[in-house]
Structure formats: C-alpha cells, structure tokens
Amino acid sequence: MIPFNVPPYCGREDEYVLQAIHSHKISGDGTFTKKCHAWLEERTGAARALLTTSGSHALDMAALLCRLEPGDEVIMPSYTFSSTANAFVLAGAVPVFVDIRPDTMNIDEHLIEAAITPRTKVICVMHYAGVGCEMDTVMDIARRHGLKVVEDAAQGVMASYKGRALGSIGDYGCFSFHESKNYSMGEGGALLLRADDPRAEIIREKGTDRARFLRGQVDKYTWEDLGSSYLPSELNAAYLYGQLEMAEQINAARLHCWALYKELLTPLAEAGRIELPFIPEGCVHNAHMFYIKAKDLDERTALIAWLKEHGVSSVFHYVPLHSAAAGRRFGRFHGEDRYTTRESGRLLRLPMYYGLTDGDVETAARTVAAFYGEGSAVR
Question: How far is Cα of residue 285 from the mean position of the Cα atoms in its chain?
Fold first, then answer.
C-alpha cells in the first residue's frame, strides 16, 4: 500500500531533541524555539513569529488579538477546517461563510464585500493547498472597510503570493506543523504578525508578562490579559528545526512529485475525465497536496475504493462547515452556495509526502487512469 501521508523526517531531529533534553530547558522558548522564530521571520518577512502548540491555537491567538466582541462577524470560506471557524466562535464571533472559487478552492474574493455588515470585524482567508488567495483584493476590501485580515496559512509554509510569503500579508498569519504538513513537529504551529504587538506574547504566556520578566524588563510578572498556554515544548521545536534546516530540499522534492503527477495525469484531464489543480499567475505553491476532481461525489467514492483495492491510499477533504451541525448553529452562509458543496464532493487527494518516489507517483497515476479505462494515457 502506498500511504497517503508519511510525516517528514530528515535525520537530525533525534540529535536536536537530545540536545534540548540535555539543555535542561524543555518547556519552551529555549534555544531551538528561538532558532525556529528566527527562521520563520527571515523566510516570511513577518515582524514577529511565535511558535504555538498547534495551528488551531495560532488561530485562537489571532482571534484574541482581533479584540472581537460577542456578535461580531467574521467572513470566511465554508470549505476549510473546523479550526478556522472555531477560533472565532470561541471569541464570541459569528462565522459568515461565502462561496469559493472552483479553480483554486479558495474564498471567492468578489463575494466578500457583499457579505460585510456593521458587525463585520475580520476577513479570514484560507490558502488551500498552499495556493494563495487573491490577497490584493482582500487587503483592499479590508482597508476600505477598516477590517482585520487573518490568513489561515496552515498549508502555506514556503508558498507565496506575488513575492510575499503566505501568512505575512494580513494582520495575522497562522501556520500548522501537524504531522500531515510539509514540515512537522508532531503537533504545533506558528503565529505570524505583520506588525509586532506586545499582546501576542502575553496571550501566549497564559495572559502574563512572563516574557518581559525573563528579559529583565520587569521585576515580577503578573496576569495582564486573556491568554492560555500556547507555548510548545522545546522538544517539539527541536524536532521542527531539523526540518526547517532542510526546507529547500523538502520543498524541491515535493514540487518534483507534484510536477510528475501533473505530467502523468494531464492526458486524462485533456480527455475530460478529471480536473487538475490550477495555480494562478503570481502564486508560488509548495506542493502541499496533489488533488484531482472526479465528475461527482459518486464517482469520487468509487475511485477512492478502486485506489484502495489497488494499493493506493487516497482521501477526500473538508465537508463544508455550513452543512455541519456546528456550522448551522454558530454561523450562517451568505449568498448562493454555487461551488462549495459541489466542488468539495468531487475532490480527491492523492499520496503526497517527503520521501514519495517517482515509482509511487507513477503507480498512483496509472491506477487512476486504469479506473477510467485510460491506462494507455499514462506513460
């Protein structure tokens, strides 16, 4: 069986974790955390980067930094992970879902402005598959209406939009380093700030100014604001740093596999049997995933079963949030659902991970083609 995902491992993670253990500083914000912060700030251009215990917690922190009040509204796509909405619901806000673009599966930037009401405070975009949303339009809308912008860039490390790193364009950007992501610390994430905000490290340190105390800026630390324990273990940071050092190599290997999938499956797409991912001009993606679109939900279900029977793991992705029980309870959909439900029911993700071989990609592509009776269309 070709697995759908294998968590990345480069070789020095063990060594770095042992270094962290022997440093007697394992609770977080030690040497490896600082190295990760420096790498993230240098690579993204963010004013500040802070490791968190998960991508979900990075979103939670962003929601708190937006100073939302109960009943405030946050515009976002319905085609995203539950954490995108949860963060704002926990802060008392109402998610307002709008439709997606069928070409990128990202929020349709042209539908955002019509969803704005006097209660709107934030636009939250999600960069699906590491392909950037149309951020120039999003930022222009936010500027004209005085709104904050949060980027759910969980899938976007090493990807960019018009030369700017995903996660660094809005007010706050959120990365994930879950085991399913391109770079992993098991469970973890990071919050990026376009402009430094002292509240961020206070929220991250249980609502205290402990970070200022450790820098010698105050003689004691106290409870200053809302917050929680969003600090990851130094062991997790050490594991992550072993991969950030190898980020270019990991990125190149994934892009190679992505390009090979596209080459092999293009004849099937040209025959009208499937659709392939679209990368808009100005977007540099990171090969977070390779997906195809079947004709409809029934065909996708049959294809997943076929692939499994022939030794290839594949998965569908998000069930639209507005169709879920919590989505109906906590949020609402603005406008027409032309594409969100239809396109989400067609999408299927093929194996993609660091260490995937050309042979694995060829096997997966041939198996897809065989399902459609087009085996000869793949070399």
Answer: 12
